Amino acid sequence: MATVAATAFQDALQDVREQTLGLVAPFSHAELERVQHPLMSPLDWDLGHIAAYEDLWLVHRHGGEPLLRGDLADLYDAFETPRAVRGDIPFLRGDDVFDYLAAVRERTLEVLERVGADDGTLFEMVLRHEAQHNETMRQTLFLGGLCGGRPEGSPARRHGDAEDWIEIPGGTFEMGARADGFAFDNERPRHAVDVPAFAIARRPVTNGTWMRFVEGGGYERREWWSDEGWAWKEEYDITHPEGWTADGTADHDDLPVLHISWFEADAFARSREARLPTEAQWEKAATRSQDRMQDVGHAWEWTSSPFGGYPGFVAHPYREYSEVFFGGPYRVLRGHSWATSARVRSTTFRNWDLPLRRQIFAGVRLAKDVA
Ligand code: AVJ
Ligand code: FE
């Protein structure tokens, strides 16, 4: 691949850092240090992890220099130190974590000047890593009830989601990212997939429609739920999406519903005698040129597909990004949310999480078979 000019990355690195710092600017050291929610890392951990990741990949691996803080490597490694224990460890706090971010960035810019960016893969990966953590941090803000965890401003008027289907004719399409340019390993190799004719909803399900599902016994009708979904709902006494008020109401009827689990999405689809799209169906619909899906980009969209590798998958550049999650209970989400950085958005991007998770900015778009 061609060499990418170093200057192309200076601005981009600066940009994503401004996003990161802007996100945490409203909060005190104490708020950043605290566990906001048992599912999530303290925000200070995310900040230190962003710096450690950049130091590892750009300064150490790419630039050949020793780590700035090798003593912190395990503590900021997502696998060595899982989220559940991150509240109790000596991650950098207060000014120290901001100093660490700045010190690593200085080293990165020196490396960029000294050895360049090669084909840009590692720089792009590190940029997108920070951008992805910005969305994770917004999930933490959402669960902690802090500003930055919800879309801001008054939403544009939407059309609602009166069932309006797009019929997609059967036939093969090329699924996955092209061989050139940056993509995550799980988006490759691009390969032909035969997708029989199906229909997909023009718009995602809205809060207003979800409200009618709730009122129509959506969380009480056993026949709409999978065994696992029902057990989860009963155990946690789930009666509406995460973040609705205690009496179970949502703002913004016309906006796509957010913070539902895969189990809820699946139950809703059954209540409509529909189902979730497979990720191949979603991507085929998203990449065609006519009769496009609408309102992609407010909520991630759950698909029925388990997370796995495409035929011929090769882990690159690090196994822990995707491969370690293949074949597990994870389900794929497609599209992007209001909180996703433009740099990360694409029609081939694959997100994933456990079917019970609701911290993601996730909703649902229905699909069904056509006769
Ligand atoms: C692609 C969002 C599932 O948060 O686990 C961040 C992104 N990987 N640091 C995650 C990621 C390593 C990843 N997701
Ligand atoms: Fe990470």
Structure description:
With 371 residues, the chain is an alpha+beta fold. 34% of the residues lie in helices and 10% in strands. It has nine helices and nine strands. The protein has helices at residues 6-24, 29-33, 43-62, 95-115, 121-143, 207-215, 227-236, 262-271, 279-287, and strands at 165-168, 171-175, 191-195, 198-201, 300-306, 331-334, 351-353, 362-363, 367-369. The strands form three sheets. A four-stranded mixed sheet has the order 7-6-5-8. Helix 1 (6-24) runs parallel beside helix 5 and helix 3 (43-62) packs antiparallel against helix 5. It binds N,N,N-trimethyl-histidine (AVJ) and fe (iii) ion.
Which structural category fits the helices and strands? alpha+beta
- Which molecules are bound besides the chains? N,N,N-trimethyl-histidine, fe (iii) ion
Rounded to an integer, what's the Rg over CA atoms? 21 Å
Q: Tell me the number of helical segments per DSSP (H or I, 4 or more residues long).
A: 9
Secondary structure: helix percent: 25-40%
Question: Tally of extended strands?
Answer: 9
For the termini, the CA-CA separation is 46 Å
β content, as a range?
A: 5-15%
Q: What shape does the CA trace take? A: globular
Q: What sequence of helices (H) and strands (E) makes up the elements? A: HHHHHEEEEHHHHEEEEE
Largest sheet: 4 strands, mixed
Q: Could you report the average pLDDT, rounded to the nearest whole number?
A: 95
